């Protein structure tokens, strides 16, 4: 039975099958526009610290308020 907290069940299952943790797969599958391709987002380095911080907040990075921009970027890429 599908989990009602997961917005994109198909993507969630595919990510878990690839070896992602259930938490990370759920976070990705629940992002707005999950599964859509063709984004024109700037790299993290090209964004301001505030923009990177807001992205970290959106995906639930803990301890983000004490991180500098480089640490936020690393946490986003490795979470």
TrEMBL record:
Residues 24-43 are annotated as: Disordered. Coiled coil: none annotated. InterPro entries: DUF7218 (IPR055642), Rho-like_N (IPR011112). It holds the Pfam family Rho_N. GO terms for biological process: DNA-templated transcription termination. Residues 50-76 form the Rho termination factor-like N-terminal domain. This is Rho termination factor-like N-terminal domain-containing protein.
């Amino acid at each position: 039975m599908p989990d009602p907290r997961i917005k994109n069940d198909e993507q969630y299952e595919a990510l878990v099958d690839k070896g992602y943790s259930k938490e990370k797969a759920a976070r990705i599958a629940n992002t707005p526009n999950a599964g859509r391709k063709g984004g024109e987002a700037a790299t993290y380095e090209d964004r301001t610290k505030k923009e990177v911080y807001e992205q970290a907040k959106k995906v639930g990075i803990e301890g983000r308020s004490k991180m500098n921009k480089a640490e936020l970027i690393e946490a986003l890429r490795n979470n």
